[in-house]
Each structure stands twice: as structure tokens, then as C-alpha cells.
Task: structure prediction
Amino acid sequence: MNHKEPSNKAAPLLQVKHLCKQFLIGKSLLKRHRAQLNAVNDVSFTLQKGKTLGIVGESGCGKSTLGRCILRLIEPSSGQVLIEGEDLTTMPAKVLNKMRKDIQIIFQDPYASLSPRMTIHEILREPLDTHRMGSPREREEKIAQIMQEVGLRAQILNRYPHEFSGGQRQRIGIARALVLEPKLIIADEPVSALDVSVQAQVLNLISDLKNKRAISFVFIAHDLAVVQHICDEVAVMYLGHIVEQASSEELYRNPRHPYTQSLLSAIPVPNPHKRSKAIILTGDVPSPINPPSGCAFRTRCQFAKPICAQSQPQLTTKKETPEAHKIACHLVQ
Result:
């Protein structure tokens, strides 16, 4: 069957439908896998053009795996990833390679994501050469333009990554993602490895570029204060599931899921008169190899009831919440 070119211009930029990813762990003497790790479980969401979706949760909840499955850097076990109506998960390799210029990633570690053997010029020129974008002169002009946009001088292009600070390296990583003029960027905790003073600069840069270029972002982070600053919508993940999703304003104003409430209560407030009591979760995060029955959060939830162990709650809109505010909890009505 021949692959058709995208035709549905009215489709959202990104649609993720029932995406799952399982990893088979270890092998026995009979070469049978001992266990299955459920990293992403039935995740669905939609992202419109020019918007930013924040994916938040504790370490190990599946955020980064989800981002890599969207890009097909990791092959999903099941589900769909649609870019403007076109399913990346069934796309032939030749067509997918052409689509990759529209979907880029900013990695978490600016020290590991840049080749130490390549100059900054070579790092930025390589994707342009690979996708044959423009003439040689136009490629050089594009590199100069991108360097200016991310706040770096063109004079540094012949240097190597080890000659720069962490913040400068992350700007180079952002420049590499932007040079192909993508429609969507997966930002995988792009500021978590940086000093606090540098984090604000990089976040402001991403925000400015989003507004100027109308690029959509999936912004993966564990710092909810950072997500509030930059995201239009937020999805909270726990043990591979999305447990709450809403606009940024609505989620921070009216968190409904007990897990979201505990995360938000831990955000430092600079005003001593407005400090709220932190909700301390008991117990450890369950193993994704052997998750609890029913609701994955029930083993740490102070409100858990017998129904929570019997069936898994679905991510749906509840009473007295906006239509776009969805919660996966049996006890929230």
C-alpha cells in the first residue's frame, strides 16, 4: 500500500492514542523473559499547533519513555502517534525519515547530547545536509540566524562542545533542534541539569522561540514550578498512566487528583504568609514490573477505598470541572 501525503489540514498537530510501551526484562536458562516492565500504559492526549503540553511526575513514571515513543526513538508496543493526521507508528522508514525534520528533541544532558568530535558548525550543519535543505550558502545563513536567535555569537562555530558551559551547550542543543524549522519539539527535562540561574535564561529562550515561531512543545519535567511558567496544558503521570490533565491555569488553581495535590503542595512559596502544608506521601513508588491492581496510586493514597483495588479508574471529566479537565480517580466525582 502506497503511503499518502498528509491531507487533513484541520487535524491537531499531535495526537497520541492509547500508547503503550512494555520492556521485557531478563532471560531464564530456557531463554524465556522473566518479567515485563510496563513503562507507558494507555496514554492519550492531543496537542494543538503552537501550544505547549507539560508532562510531569516523579522519576521513573515513564515521562522520557513517552517522549521517545512519540519520536519512535523507542518503538511503541501498541497505540498510535499522529502528526497532522499521519500515523508515525505505521509509517515506512523512508517516509518517516523525511518526517523527522518536523519533529525534533532537546535532550536532558547537554554534556552527553553533543558529539565531542564535532565543532558547533558541524553539529548544526549536519541535519541541514542530511535533509538537503537549501543551497550551501542558504545553509550557512540559516546557521548564522539560529545562532543569533539562541543568543550565541557566530565566532564560536569552530569550537568544540567541551569549551562551553552547561547553559551554552544547552543553547547549542536548542539551536540544533531549531535549525530544521520543526513543527514539534520534545523537550526532555531541558533545564534539570543546569544551575538555577541558567535555568531561567533557557526557559525564557524556549518561551520566546515558541511565541515567535509558533512551535509546539511537549515539555517533560519533574519541577512543577518550571512547567507552570512555560506550559499551556499539563498532564500528570504516575507509574505510566496519566492521572490528571488540564490547562495549566486550571490545574494549579484546582488540582483534583490526590497525587497532583501532593506534588503541588511541595512547591516552595516565597511568601511566608501563604505557605501551605506539604502533603507527604507514605511508602515507595510501586515497581512497574509488578504494579498494584486497580489504581496504581492506591498504595500511597490516604483516601483509598476497596473500589480502588478492584478496577483501574479511567481518565475522564468529572462534575464541576471544565470539559478539558480530566481526572483518573474513583473518589473524585
In short: Confidence is low (pLDDT under 50) at residues 1-8.
